[in-house]
Amino acid sequence: MAAPKKGRRPAGGQSRPGRALALILIAMVALTGGMFWSGHTTPRLGIDLAGGTSITLKAKAEPGQESAVNETNMNTAVGIIERRVNGLGVSEAEVQTQGRENIIVNIPKGTNEKQAREQVGTTAQLYFRQVLAVAAAEQPAPNPSATPSGSATPSAKPSGATADKGKDGKSATPTATASSQGRAVSEALKAPSPTPTASSSSSASPKAPSTPNPTQSGDAATAALQQKFATLNCLDPKQRAAVGQGVKPSEPTIACGEDAPGIWSKYLLGPAEVDGKDVDDAQGVFDQQRSMWIVTMDFTGEGSKKFQKITGKLSQQQDPQNRFAIVLDGDVVSAPSVRQTLSASAEISGSFTQETAQDLGNILSYGALPLSFETQSVDTVTAALGGEQLQAGLIAGAIGLALVIIYLVVYYRGLSFVAILSLGVSALLTYVIMALLGPAIGFALNLPAVCGAIVAIGITADSFIVYFERIRDEIREGRTLRPAVERAWPRARRTILVSDFVSFLAAAVLFVVTVGKVQGFAFTLGLTTLLDIVVVFLFTKPVMTLLARTKFFGNGHKMSGLDPKSLGAKPPLRRTRRTSAPAAGPVEPKEA
User: Fold this and answer.
1) CA–CA separation, 420 vs 409, rounded Å?
2) In whole angstroms, what separates CA 400 from the centre of its chain?
3) DSSP classification of residue 212
4) Distances from the Cα of 260 to the Cα of 119, 150, 334, 559, angstroms
5) Least CB-packed of 99, 164, 210, 360 within 10 Å?
């Protein structure tokens, strides 16, 4: 006779359910301990629950550079914007791409929310350009008989005598000395340098035209550009927005600059000599000696050479061509005059406040965005509105959970205890993981994510129902509970895996093809679907294996939900076969 096999496991079963329960218990303790150790005991709330501002930016390419709007530049822009916002001390800001050409910036409510809103869309394309001509925006188009507002006129004052007065200083009317419209160059000594020799074309006659001829501009500006400069009206917001668009850094251009609130000047500028990439560091600081806020800039090694070269050239020119304009996103923010060759650092001074100085320093420090952006929408969400929506969502979830529990208790009776415990384990794991994912990957719980968690209640309950019904089917076939639990598991497991795979696939596709808050719904749905598999395999099935060994469930108590009589069970198949088989023995021959 063959020896009986020892330690044989039931088909599809687990011989040691305690191992699975110990594994999930260790995981729960470890995750919960990590949550308390990290100090983030609550999930990070999204902007719709915490309140704040959501800004949608759309990238726009310059004419002929449509290919610049690509994934690499968009990711670079996201990184720069995120560093700018975080540099202001705004915590937990969210910056992410939306589709091919949009960036979503979610700024939670905080002390620096206003500054962050102003900086996210600032491209910060910084260029240093030589000033070829300057005129007040209030004046009509110049004519040959008019005295130029921005050109030098005979005066006892040497050029640059008023260079310390900011371009946006308090003087409302531009004076004959053009340097009074610019801010002081940093690092320039206060002692005036020798006055450059005036050329006959610029100062020989007080009636020289303000629109420079090609010789006066060093052949840098074309006649067409001079005509645009003459007709430019910087008081018109539409003209200010369109000026300089599509101009390459190597080309001359025109620009507007605000001297004071409502007081504008227009500039004819040469090609860019230095750009923002040459700035190594910049910051807004308070100058104790002059009692004013300034922006200091340190250049890179290559930038220092460029800056030294351009300032050396400008120091030999006559006003206004001895000035360089600091052009930020097409606007002249400063136009200081140069009196000597400068080296590796400079400063921008003028009528800065602490906020504007620190803003400009922050923008210049983190570099220019590789693309230009226009603001598509700015939505403000209050915490009160988000709280009301969250309360409504939680009430809906509580009602749904209560209905599921009532259904389980009424229909499955004692088995509902297993289902409720499994739901509790799944809820605990979901909460802890969400709390940990906030600081880890920046996951924020928003209203769509809450909806995903509520939908997951039904998915998790569906897995329990599939398994319970498979067990009941085995009992109806005449099997006792312990073999029914093990035989039902392979069939139920296959169904649960297929169902959860479909749900996870739908969540993954939704996460990939959508953006913004809808991704929160997809992420939560996918997360809870994976947790459903973990809970069913490591908790629900082992618990059922242990309960099948108890008298209450094993003997089919009426309140267990597994009563064979209530389920209409058939007589045991094996017992039927044994009683119907004839007894073995010799066959007696019949007598004739």
Assistant:
1) 9
2) 33
3) P
4) 21, 16, 12, 84
5) 99
Q: Which of 302, 284, 294 is nearest to 186 (CA)?
A: 294
Sheet holding 52-60, edge to edge: 94-98, 102-108, 52-60, 372-381
Does residue 261 have a cis bond before it (omega within 30 degrees)? Answer: no
Report whether 466 contacts 499 (CB < 8 A). Answer: yes
Supply the Cα-derived Rg of the chain in whole angstroms: 39
pLDDT tens profile 402-440 = 888 898 899 888 888 999 999 999 999 999 999 998 878
pLDDT tens sequence across 474-510: 988 888 888 999 999 998 999 999 999 999 999 999 9
Q: Are 341 and 311 in contact (CB under 8 A)?
A: yes
Contacts 24+ apart (CB under 8 A), 12-17: 12/486, 12/487, 12/489, 12/490, 12/493, 13/485, 13/486, 13/489, 13/545, 14/486, 14/541, 14/542, 14/545, 17/541, 17/542, 17/543, 17/545, 17/546
DSSP state, residue 296: E
List Cβ neighbours of 110 (8 Å cut-off, separation of 6 or more): 52, 89, 90, 91
Cα separation, 32 vs 518, whole angstroms: 28
What pairs with residue 104 in β-bridges? 56, 96
What residues form DSSP beta bridges with 52? 108, 381
User: For residues 158-178, b (16+ Cβ closer than 10 Å) or e, as one string?
Assistant: ebbbbbbbbbbbeeeebbbbb
CA-CA distance, 160 to 245, in Å (whole number)? 31
